[in-house]
Amino acid sequence: MTWSLAYRRYRLPFRAPVRTAHGAWLVREGLVVLLAGENGTVGYAEVAPLPVYGTETVDEAEAACRALGGKVEGDAFADLAPGLPCLSNALQAARRAASGMPPPHAHLSVAALLPAGRPALAAAVEKAEAGFRVFKWKVGMGEPDAEIGLLDELCAVLPGGSRLRLDANGAWDRRTAEKWLKHCADRPIEHVEQPCLGSRRGDRNLDDLLLGLAHDYPTPLALDESLAGDGDADRWLGLGWPGVYVVKPILFADLGGVLRRLEMARAPVVFSSILETAVGARTGLRAAFEWKGESRALGYGVWPLFADPRFDGPATGPFIRWTDVERINPEAVWNALS
Fold first, then answer.
1. Any bridge partners for residue 11, and if so which?
2. Which residue among 189, 254, 293, 322 is buried most deeply as judged by most CB within 10 Å?
3. What pLDDT digit, counting tens, does each position of 303-328 carry?
């Protein structure tokens, strides 16, 4: 089949700056792509790169789309964008979207994203009243002792039986990570995401550090920035990673292959947003609903996110239902970018 390819670039400001240990994030940039088949089928997907994770840039993805010349022959989309994992992912996702959706689970639980610092306390109370019981708190942006003290306050306001995820975005050195993990041992911490981060992915010293921390402390660790490409999953599976894999679905060139290998290894997986638009969220949520492994609360409790709400994914409560995903209208996002 011959497919027509079109794309539109976006640059969308967030409603409020997203603060992480990497700094304040103000704007999301990416592409929405459209594939139209000769038989009238249409599929949309999103290219939402994170160069800090080692992906291509938006400029590189756009140049590759332009080079394809508006036409794609056949169905071997995995080979069209070598070295451009986010674009490769999007082309395959658009083709799958054009072919229809398989039957999914009915609903999945969602973790509530809390703001950094002291505002997390009021946000946690509000989210708990809405029914959330899994929470994610960004750390690593303040003085460690002050943040650790705030952790105890946060745990105190959470309802009984709640679980809290901490996301350091690689902000800590070994000593700081050890201090946190000692403190977390007797608290309701589900896992700590990416406590440390080296200068590059695949750094053997970083791998050894994360493996050592994972084996030395009872609180589970989760890979985030260290799991940003297809080869990362194979490397960590080969190293016998004992913790959680945070999968941001639209970052992987061969998402299906990565998930099959994680499923075969019975790896615990958390599907998580990379602050994409509703189009990319549709791809990621589809993968989460298709997952046959252990089900954990999704990291998609991020909306409302954009200053222009037309680009937000589904507003999530403690659960997201497949009907919420079905209601995402990628054509409306496409039209809003015209």
1. 29
2. 189
3. 999 999 999 999 889 999 998 999 99
ω into residue 314 within 30 of 0, thus cis?
no
Both structure tokens of 107? 């609903």
Cα 166–Cα 175–Cα 179 angle in degrees, nearest 5 = 50
Sign of the four-CA dihedral 299, 300, 301, 305:
positive
Active-site hit among 136, 182, 248, 292: 248
All structural domains of the chain: 2-98 (3.30.390.10), 107-336 (3.20.20.120)
Q: At 318, list the tokens.
A: 């403690």
Distance of CA 51 to the CA centre of its chain: 14
Residue 254 pLDDT greater than 70, yes or no: yes
User: What was the pLDDT predicted at 9?
Assistant: 98
Which residue from 109, 98, 104, 106 is spatially nearest to 330, judged by alpha carbons? 98
pLDDT at 169: 93
Phi, psi of 245 (to 5 degrees): -110, 115
* Nearest residue to 194 via CA among 151, 161, 228: 228
Rg (C-alpha) for the chain, rounded Å, is: 20
The DSSP bridge partners found for residue 223 are 245
Coil, strand or helix at 205: helix
Q: List beta partners, residue 221.
A: 192
Query: Please, which residues bridge with residue 247 across strands?
Result: 271
CA gap 48, 22 in Å, rounded: 18
- How far apart are alpha carbons 85 and 58 in whole angstroms? 12
The answer for 302, left when phi > 0, alpha when psi is -120 to 50, beta otherwise, is: alpha
CA distance 321 to 85: 28
Cβ–Cβ under 8 Å, residues 90 and 254: no
Annotated active-site residue in 71, 127, 136, 138: 138
Q: What are phi and psi of 244, to 5 degrees?
A: -95, 150
Closest CA to 281 of 305, 314, 252: 314
Q: What is the pLDDT of residue 104?
A: 63
Q: Could you tell me what percent of the chain has a pLDDT over 90?
A: 80
Residue type, 240: G
Active site residue 182: no
